[in-house]
Design brief:
4 helices; mainly alpha; 103 residues
């Protein structure tokens, strides 16, 4: 869910390449810890890492304005992210996507 939000923030400004690279971000730096502890820390740090990534790209693209998603390929990518998000949200409506919450 965090990756979808990060992609949408970037696509809203027309940053298609940065949005495509969100899937390549890895959060596997929790070596030597228990599986449960690593999952909790990864969930917390992944949001911070994605936010830093988005803020870095938004800062570098000072000419990008809100609403620049109306370009053809950017619009299609944004529509695809929204469709995937809705599909995941509707299929997991009874379960929480965060494993540490226990719901």
């Amino acid at each position: 869910m965090c990756k979808a939000a990060a992609k949408l923030k970037l696509l809203e400004r027309g940053l298609l390449n940065a949005a495509n690279l969100v899937e390549d971000i890895s959060f596997d730096d929790q070596k030597g810890q228990g599986k449960e502890d690593a999952t909790k820390k990864t969930a917390k740090t992944s949001e911070k890492t994605l936010d830093q990534y988005v803020q870095m790209h938004l800062g570098m693209a000072s000419s990008a304005r809100r609403g620049d998603y109306k370009d053809g390929p950017v619009y299609q990518a944004r529509k695809q992210v929204i469709d995937e998000f809705i599909k995941i949200a509707s299929s997991n409506s009874k379960r929480c996507s965060h494993p540490e919450c226990g719901a």
